[in-house]
Amino acid sequence: QVQLQEAGPGLVKPSQTVSLTCTASGGSITTGYYYWSWIHQPPGEGLEWMGAIDTFGHTFYSPSLQSRTSISRDTSKNQFTLQLNSVTPEDTGVYYCYVQRFADYWGQGTQVTVSS
Fold it and tell me: Percent of the chain, pLDDT > 70?
């Protein structure tokens, strides 16, 4: 069973870059063929898929976020990272990492607040 754990800074200022890391356990991010995703939930709104990195390291992004988003991974730590540039208050919310690997696996989410 896969377990996912997000980590992030919590509070960031507008125009800054936020970096979030997801650590996976119970399964390697380099085996099988899966998409390891980042999902954003703004306050009171639904889920927004931001992007993913697959088992081979190929990245995929939401068109609306592609210009500001980068996903990378550290296979030695079994982690994948989201970098979101030029943040605005609209980027506030809970960020989840997710993978569908025989079942749906979600992290518990990490709150990011963009405020000056």
Answer: 100
